[in-house]
Amino acid sequence: MALRLPPYQPLPPPPAGEAGLLEVPLAQLRPTQLCVGMAEIRSRQIDFAKDTPEQRRQYLRKKPTPLVRSASGEFWIVDRHHRLRGLMELDPQATCFGYVALQLAVSERHQVLEELHSRGWLYLYDGRGLGPLPATALPDQLTGTQDDPYRSLIWKLKREGVVAAAPLIPFHEFRWGAWLRSRQLPPFGSDRLDAALPAARALARSAAASHLAGWQGLRRS
């Protein structure tokens, strides 16, 4: 299985220093993907729960979110979906720090989504890997994103060092997840990854996966 994603433009890096950062309520951010991996979100919530509100703000300031701003001032988030959804569930009034990666001259939602799609900044597959769906299927808020267990599985493999990060490739983990979907794995879910991990590790290290960015081969973590 291969994702039929359009060519993508890389995201511009955040500005040097904090002069160009905006503080935006999480409830105002519109997602650009249909799915998340709930295992990663739960892990991030454990980390956030250990911090004070000020510690959270300091952390988010160091990890600014790339934003697309429409002509009417609405914001679309083009990265950090897991981190910010995890925080939003803990604190619906929370804010994040972001920078404008793209300022659009259009304001209608369908026009904004067309601009994002043309840049390869939308992920339009559902939690079962079906798609691409119309961009209108995207939820209005981060908390409306679906769970994709394969996204959770790849998150776990990345934490173990089986799959390497590839931050310049949009939806890198989903590309890996789509490939694993085409293989045979035991039944699993985002809340019970252990059943699938041995087979997933072996597959991710196999030569059959060597075409995927982040392939580590037989290297052990």
What distinguishing features does this structure have?
five-stranded mixed sheet; two-stranded parallel ribbon
Can you give a write-up of this model?
It is a single chain. The protein has 221 residues and is of the alpha/beta class. It contains 7 helices and 7 strands. It has helices spanning 38-49, 53-62, 81-90, 109-118, 149-159, 172-181, 197-205, and strands spanning 22-25, 29-31, 35-36, 65-69, 75-77, 95-103, 146-147. Strands 1-6-4-5-2 form a 5-stranded mixed sheet. Strands 3-7 form a two-stranded parallel sheet. Helix 5 crosses helix 6 (172-181). It is globular and about 45 Å long. The model has no long low-confidence stretch (mean pLDDT 94).
pLDDT averaged over residues: 94
Distance between the termini: 27 Å
The number of helical elements comes to: 7
Instruction: Give the helix proportion (percent range).
Output: 25-40%
Whole-angstrom Rg: 17 Å
Strand order of the largest sheet: 1-6-4-5-2
What structural category arises from helix and sheet content?
alpha/beta
Largest sheet: 5 strands, mixed
Strand content: 5-15%
Taken in chain order, the helices and strands follow as EEEHHEEHEHEHHH
Uncertain segments are none
- What is the general shape? globular
Short structural description:
This protein has 221 residues and is of the alpha/beta class. It has seven helices and seven strands. The mean pLDDT is 94.
